[in-house]
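dumping this here so i dont lose it again. seq + smiles for pyridoxal-5'-phosphate
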Amino acid sequence: MTKHHFDTRLLHQEDFRDKQTGAVNVPLHYSSTFHQESIDEFGPYDYSRSGNPTRHALENTIAELENGEQGFAFASGMAAISSAFMLLSAGDHVLVSKDVYGGTFRVITEVLTQFDIEHTFIDMTDLDETARSVKPNTKVIYVETPSNPCLNITDIEGVAKVAKANGCLTFVDNTFMTPLLQKPLDLGADLVLHSATKFLSGHSDVVAGLAVTKNKEIGKRLKFVQNSFGSILGVQDCWLLLRGMKTLSVRLNQSSQTARDIAQYLHHHPIIEEVYYPGFSFHAGYPIHQRQSAGAGAVLSFRLPSKDCARVFVDQLKIPVFAVSLGAVESILSYPATMSHSAMPPAERAKRGITDGLLRLSVGLENADDLLEDIKQALAAVEQHAPAAQV
Ligand SMILES: *Cc1c(COP(=O)(O)O)cnc(C)c1O
């Protein structure tokens, strides 16, 4: 059978129709344990940490959508990322994009170091620097593209080639794009990671993480880690995530369209110093992003002249929620310096362009004109306050 389009596959997966009852939604299997027929005859499930039918449906679904073979659901994005790092051993080394998610930075610098797993942060948009930075004990190259919060673009295929040439694995955090817009496994990555808390679930009501691979050996080892370490996603959250994912394509396409309008508007506004948005043809990573992704997504960041300006903007803006997180039906404005990247020391933040005037906007499903009007009036207030606040 030919594969249907992505938006159709979001709605029709084999696991969605309950074989026993015909129910069109995956049943909630609230069972920690499963009855076995005899002492030497076991069914497909024994204990829910090792496997649960509701979780299994979710794991199969994300595996299918990422063009992978095996999917894994974890209690959070960080649980997925940390579990993936458990494929490493003491003495191994990881190469990491310098502007990774703050929580990933924290686990690499403060947890993995406890187990003698070394790291180097590099500018992964530079493939030469990436190749030069590989050490004899490098086992994983860890990519986040577009990166957070400055939306830098890394060439996934290029990095995967460097990794393969050096016998390392490529891990890609695909949270910002989702498989709707970017499929890292098709580009040579070995493992895809998600904070499913964001666009995949989409409603700010679940914390969840996912991982997908098509490499049987990695799949086997990650399954072992998932069962041993045990940071699995609970049944109810699996179900909520399965429901959220059905509308991924309409949500993300609509939000991306509005994000484009907002990025254009901000780009032309005199008080905005810089807009970070991978859909601009003058964005340094634009050609690579165009090649490896099907869209610019719904997240953009922009820089106001100072912290005071950012404060006025945040105080004046009415519609977006002011919060950490992203990828939801409601627009979410955040202040990376004290929110997503608070785990990063100020000097490290400065190196990554996370200045005190930087704001990140994850565009939701509100009416685009309402959002633009809201931004317009908040910027007018900033302009009024700016001269005094700035100097
Ligand atoms: C939120 C986020 C994470 C962490 O996921 P949680 O679900 O919050 O644990 C990892 N990577 C990126 C890019 C994120 O945005």
